[in-house]
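Lab notebook: predicted structure, single chain.

Context: the supervisor wants predicted structures on file for every construct in the current expression panel, including those that have not yet been purified. This is the next one on the list. No modifications to the sequence; it matches the entry in the shared construct table.
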Amino acid sequence: MTPIFLKLGGSLITDKTGVEAVRADVLARLAGEIQQARQANPDLRLVLGHGSGSFGHVAGAKYGTRQGVHTAQEWRGFAEVSAAALRLNRLVTEALLAAGVPALSLQPCASVVCVDGRITTIAAHPIQAALEAGLLPVIHGDVAFDSVRGGTIVSTEEVMMALVETLRPSWLLLAGETAGVLDLAGQVIPRITPQTLPQVEAALGGSRGTDVTGGMAAKVRDMLALVMAQPAMRIRIFSGLMPDLLPRVLAFPDTAVGTEISPDV
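Prediction complete. Output recorded below exactly as produced.
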């Protein structure tokens, strides 16, 4: 079975308007639902990513880490951002283990190299080995060394996009707070393609709370570029707040829920 990438948004598992405030009940439920999906389909090969939410984004905004790291103070901030991201990652991993999921955390900053804010090198072998061993690899947004900027921040989506060419997932599933990408009337846009993007761009606003990796508009454009480059893959954006929806999406990712991002008309 080809792998599926699942990202739990930072605003889904944390309160992004606070400081290092995890939504423990939501996280525990999602961990249980992932285990439910694994039990229903033992062949499910899942790579899990999670956003940094009110953990890494707050420290990243304080030090401007994404724009570059050069001074001693900025390098101190670089280390603080990494530590904050790891604090949330530990909570996510522990919730998964408590639910019976054999989760293994793999820190991106140890495997990613950037050039002027873009990932140019990423080590995919540890993730492949984890999947082959029946483990659930867990990745996250993180700091990264950068040959131009000194240091930067890479989002979870950027890490996942860098892994796509090697791991060839069939789906990238993005679970967030909303039911999908919303239009100006607040209704879910069922499908976005390169042809329909100009019609919905006006409705794509920024994400709530502090986010140093870009809002929904930038993410949708990045996702469209990704499916154009990997036309065998589809992307679905849906709500992670609705109980029992995640196992259904993992079992039937082509189900008509949320917003599908596709290269097709």
